TrEMBL record:
This is Cytochrome b. Pfam families: Ni_hydr_CYTB. It is found in: Cell membrane. The keyword ATP-binding does not apply. The lineage of its organism: Bacteria, Pseudomonadati, Pseudomonadota, Alphaproteobacteria, Hyphomicrobiales.
Length: 177
């Protein structure tokens, strides 16, 4: 326990756990897949909305999108649980108030969207609620921008500011035996 931590209060980790790192990268791949392939659900959605039968390939693409989306949601729940129970390392020292605010805002938006998109998508798909589909559709540019800001921020921290922000999302914390 750190000397700066009150008794009974766990110290903040200096890195993410192996599980947090794995979830981060698996979810990143799934989200990129969803963004790239997500438009393939459109023809099946329109067919169902109009009371017609979608083409087999369209239905397959839609089912893959829905399944991956539900996977993102399930992993997001686990990831949030781990964030609450394990914590997250602090931002690098020397960050300006603006940098800290931006980092926290981008993370909050990412967590909000990785939960809201699967929920709105499921409500639209399984419940036929068009407004949920609209919310889901308009959340796409939000997640694209948030992911882009997240990646740029990590790269700036690594290459410009020379901090360990990127390394700690690649290698888990090691504890002395």
């Amino acid at each position: 326990m750190s000397a700066n931590v009150a008794p009974g209060v766990a110290a903040r980790p200096t890195s993410y756990s192996s599980a947090q790192i794995m979830l981060h990268w698996v979810m990143a791949a799934m989200i990129v897949f969803q963004v790239v392939m997500g438009e393939n659900i459109g023809p099946a959605w329109l067919a169902f909305r109009d009371g017609t039968t979608p083409a087999e390939a369209d239905l397959f693409a839609a089912n893959v999108h829905v399944a991956v989306g539900m996977g993102v949601f399930a992993l997001a729940v686990i990831r949030i649980f781990l964030r609450v129970t394990h914590g997250a390392p602090p931002l690098p020292a020397g960050q300006s108030r603006l940098q800290t605010t931006i980092a926290h805002a981008v993370h909050a938006i990412l967590y909000l969207v990785i939960v809201a998109m699967p929920i709105s998508g499921a409500i639209a798909w399984f419940g036929g609620v068009e407004i949920a589909g609209t919310v889901h559709h308009f959340a796409k540019p939000v997640i694209v921008i948030a992911v882009a800001l997240h990646v740029v921020g990590a790269l700036v921290q690594h290459f410009v500011k020379k901090t360990d922000v990127l390394r700690r999302m690649i290698r888990p914390e090691r504890h002395a035996a």
